[in-house]
Amino acid sequence: MLEVRSVTVGYRSRTVLHEIELNLGPGFHVLLGPNGAGKTTLFRVLAGVLRPWRGEVRIEGRDLARDLSVRTKVAYVPQRDTLYPSLTVRDNLFFFAQMYGLSEDVARQRVSEVVEELQLGEFLMQAAGTLSGGQKRRVNLARALLATPNVLLLDEPTTGLDPILARSVRQLLQGLAREGQLILTATHNLYEAAELAEEVILIHRGRIIQRGSVEDLKGRMGLRRFGFRTTGDPRPVFAQLGLESRLEGGLWVIEVSEEEQVSRAVSALVTSGLSVLEVRELDNPLESLFDALTAGRL
């Protein structure tokens, strides 16, 4: 659905993206990288806002730079506010619906739908300039959803939202991905990313350095830490399996290279007569990836 072919681009004499290659289909993709890695620049290229120096972007086989009509299939929600501050939320939405070429009847229906989906009713007649940061984020997302885009680009979509609304937005986006939309989001909320991502794309210094599912990337990270809470002392069982263990905050912690080792440890503990009360991974896999990325280990 979305192809990025050897894209190189920057600002003035400074190159930001180097020979980017991507081929993305429907689903939920997370773009992960430290500040200055090129995430926002990549979004601007994919939205057609910034033209590549070299290479091309294609959506459903059509060149984004040459075929302007294909841009209606892409919606971009940047971190900055894109609303007209003196217009009400309702008027902003109807203005953008008109800009997207929606008929009056379709615009009325879509505005009603996004207002309900993103719970905008309480401040619908309020001037956009008076909204809180979180409220503006919701209205900007609603604006992007009006034309039911095939490709949705989101830069920190839940920043400023309270936990309940953030969960509601995540569920909405997951539903859109299941229905066949391509969603690419950048977020610094690594726990949110681990929960949502069907694929993670790691970008560093303007280059894509890794990509894959969370499980795939976990497997490339080496050792992972798991904590066990049991009814007795599990150390003899762990030792028989060749695993070192130590007590941390009430959990017996082991390090494994494969998740199957955890299953074998649980079976061995139960066979030995111990009850396993809790097993959980102690580190967010994306947090470990991010730390490795920023430390230059990837």
Automatic annotation (TrEMBL):
InterPro entries annotated for this entry? AAA+_ATPase, ABC_transporter-like_ATP-bd, ABC_transporter-like_CS, ABC_transporter_ATP-binding, ABC_transptr_haem_export_CcmA, P-loop_NTPase
Keyword terms of this UniProt record? ATP-binding, Cytochrome c-type biogenesis, Nucleotide-binding, Transport
Q: Does the keyword Signal apply?
A: no
Please report which protein family the annotation says this sequence is part of: Belongs to the ABC transporter superfamily.
Keyword Transport listed? The answer is yes
* One MF term in the entry's GO annotations: ATP hydrolysis activity
Query: Which example biological process does GO assign this protein?
Result: cytochrome complex assembly
- Stated name of the protein: ABC-2 type transport system ATP-binding protein
Q: Which CDD domains match?
A: ABC_DR_subfamily_A
The superkingdom of the source organism is Bacteria
Gene source species: Brockia lithotrophica
Report the coiled-coil segments: none
Q: What range(s) does the ABC transporter domain occupy?
A: 2-230
